[in-house]
Design brief:
The longest helix is centred in the middle third of the chain and has 31 residues. The chain has two helices and no strands.
Length: 77
């Protein structure tokens, strides 16, 4: 994706402070997640893939994620 600067004659709408803080928090979270992912890839590049015994089966990961989503869901009345 090519980033192009905004045209100079276009006025930008400023965010209120709370919205700007929320955007900064989201950016920080996204950056941390990307850094963690990059670290995993660098480890794989340096040391190779982990053994099968060290890995968690994808089915187990899926079930953990579905359980986490179910806990976040509000109860149905």
């Amino acid at each position: 994706m090519i980033e192009q600067p905004a045209p100079a004659d276009t006025a930008r709408q400023q965010l209120d402070p709370a919205a700007a803080d929320a955007v900064r928090a989201y950016a920080a979270h996204t950056r941390a997640t990307a850094d963690q992912f990059a670290g995993v890839l660098e480890d794989i590049a340096a040391n190779g893939l982990p053994s099968v015994e060290e890995c968690t089966p994808w089915e187990e990961l899926r079930e953990q994620h579905l359980a986490r989503l179910a806990r976040q869901r509000p109860p149905v009345a």
